[in-house]
Each structure stands twice: as C-alpha cells, then as structure tokens.
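ugh ok fine here u go
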Amino acid sequence: MDKREEFISIYKEHIRREGADKLLEYLTSSASDFFDAPASTRFHGAYQGGLVEHSVNVYHCLKAYLERPRVREEYGLRVDDESVAIAALLHDLCKINCYKPGTRNVKENGVWKTVPTFEYSDDLPYGHGEKSVYIITGFMRLTREEAFAIRYHMGFAGTEEARNVGEAFQRFPLAFALSTADMEATYFLEG
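structure:
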C-alpha cells in the first residue's frame, strides 16, 4: 500500500463527521495537489509525495505517543481515534498548492550545477497552522482541542508568540502531543 492509499484508508476508517467526505473529495481532486506536493522546499519530504508521507508518519507517531503508559496513566491523556486522525492527517493542509517546481544552483566538486528544487508561493498567506484550520473548517467542524492542536502543531519552532504556544499546550494537551509527533516524524523519520 502506498502512502496515498494508506492516508485514504486511515481517513475513511476514522474520520466520519459531517463534511469529511467533501474534504476528502477536495483532497483527491485536481484542485488540490495534496498527494503530489512536497512537505518542504529543501528539508523533510522535499520531494513529490512528501506531504502525504509526512502526514501519515505524523499519524503513526501521534498514535504511538498516545499509547505510551506514562501518557495514558500519569497524564490521563486519552484522545479518540477520529481526533487523532484529523489532527495528524490534516495538520499541514496549509501546504496544498504552495510548492512549485524550480531550480537552484549548487556547487559540487568546485563546479556549479543546476538542480531541481521546489519554490514556495502561497496565494493564501494566512499563516501556517491557522491556515490548515481555516481550510478544514470550510468542510467540517473541528473540536476546540483539534483546532488548537493543528494551529499550534509547530510548537516553539514556529513563529507564534511563545506565551501562546505554552498556553495552548497547557490547556489543550493534544496540541503538545501533535507537536511532539510532528517533530518526531520530521527529524527522526524524515530527517
């Protein structure tokens, strides 16, 4: 099963709220490059299909984090399967239709060479996590916990006000868990 098939399988199994079918229809349509887009221009997942691969990786990392005995027993964090799938699979929808193929020059063995790359061009510059929330809520409602998790998934690595990140993590533990899963996927699975 490739990452596109895995994403769709997880999505259909766990995300069932009103509007979910319309969101998936959009993601699989020609209006969206979600399944072909890279996850970044030059870092993790900087290749065609990197975005869907990253989203599936974050899903598995989030599931594993939430299954830890310490997280379940000591922290008392329990998140239903639908919220896990929504937060992990959809946290980076903000990257849809933002990466365009391009080139850059690099020096290899003292010789300049033109190599393919991706350039970032956002026609809807609404921020990162907040743009993902905006896109999702155009199709289906999010719980407050899901919205804050997606909004603050970059954690302290993002451009958000640090005080707001800390408040979000304290009030909405799924936000911390998703940020942890996102960093684990980015730096350990895809780095």
